[in-house]
Amino acid sequence: MASISGRVGEPRTPTTASDRRLLGVLTPTHGFTATWASIVHAATTPGVRGAEVFTVATRAGWFVGSARLPGLEGTAAWLLALVLVMRGGHLVGVRAIDMPSNWTALHWGLSASHVAEIEEAAAVRAKTFAQSILEGRRQLTGGLSLTAGLLLAPVSLLYLALARPLLGKLFVADERCTSCALCAKHCPFGAVHMIGGPRKRPYWTSSCESCMRCMNVCPERAIQANWPLAAAQTWVMLAIYAAVTGAESATVELTTQVLAFIAACVAVLCMTGPVYWVAWRLSRLGAVAWLLGHMTPTRLFRRYREPETNLRDI
Ligand SMILES: Cc1cc2nc3c(=O)[nH]c(=O)nc-3n(C[C@H](O)[C@H](O)[C@H](O)COP(=O)(O)O)c2cc1C
Question: Is domain 15-151 annotated with CATH 3.40.50?
Answer without folding.
Answer: yes
